[in-house]
């Protein structure tokens, strides 16, 4: 790549970064529906056309932001799990983790942004694998805690811990979707804790 080509690439990356950081700030301060593309490019100090060079839509941008957020959140979840000692029951750990996930969704992401992610998942406009895929670290954490519960005899099931973890992930998605369509009447954290108490009790045999 010649000097001019490299320079253009660096400028493009800098512009994308400005748009991204400006959007993160605006989304953190306002409801998702209140933030427009015009507001984002104004805050970034770039032309509106530059936005669409890097992002297909506002939904595509927020999905990219949340995909990035997921890796940080999963690191935080692992740090949270590491605070429990060996004597803690798998049930206590799982319920605490579900509470932490609910807090993350409510306080740091928000319903409007999750609606955009679900929309992107349905239309397949952008890759939402980091959020919706079974390869994310959260799925592995759930599987490990469930395995711990089985090894200690807390849980009894003919299913493997990996399969149960997959169903737990499905439950989290279902609850989050319900929250999105019934917001603000649906209390995500209360409903999540109640739902997982039922699921965990079913594993006790």
Order of helices and strands: HHHHHHHHHH
How far the N terminus sits from the C terminus, by CA atoms, comes to 64 Å
Tell me about the largest β-sheet: none
Helix content: over 70%
Structural class: mainly alpha
Give the rounded overall mean pLDDT.
90
User: Total number of β-strand segments?
Assistant: 0
Low-pLDDT residue spans: none
Q: Hey, roughly how much beta strand do the residues contain?
A: under 5%
| Basic shape | elongated
Please tell me how large the radius of gyration is.
Answer: 20 Å
Q: Determine the number of helices (DSSP H or I, runs of at least 4 residues).
A: 10
Structure notes:
The protein is mainly α. The longest helix has 27 residues. The mean pLDDT is 90.
Please give a handful of descriptors for the protein shown.
205 residues, mainly alpha
Secondary-structure map:
Blueprint: H1 3-29, H2 37-44, H3 48-54, H4 58-81, H5 90-109, H6 111-123, H7 129-132, H8 137-151, H9 161-182, H10 188-202
Helix pairs in contact: 1-2, 4-5, 4-6, 5-8, 5-10, 6-9, 8-9, 9-10
Briefly say what this structure is:
76% of the residues lie in helices and 0% in strands. It has 10 helices and no strands.
